[in-house]
Fold:
Amino acid sequence: MAIDRIRSPFDARCELMLDVTRRTLECDPDLKLCEGLRLIEATHKAIARLAPGSITHFENEVLPQLRSVLMERFGVSELPAGPLN
Structure:
């Protein structure tokens, strides 16, 4: 993941969760688009709970990367604006 471990605002639990999420989005052969979107939303909620001081960094830096990975995998060029359901 493109999270800089030296400057990362996340603790080890969050970094592990982000790594697993990204690898799942990239590699899980059975993943469906809707499941990927739900996984991203669940990760967002978990980060908000575990590291509330880092949520802005997650939303501004990590969330767009995760969405991009998912959209690229499924050949979607643009994710609609707004919250994920």
In short: The two ends are 24 Å apart (CA to CA). The mean pLDDT is 86. The helical segments are 12-27, 33-50, 55-73.
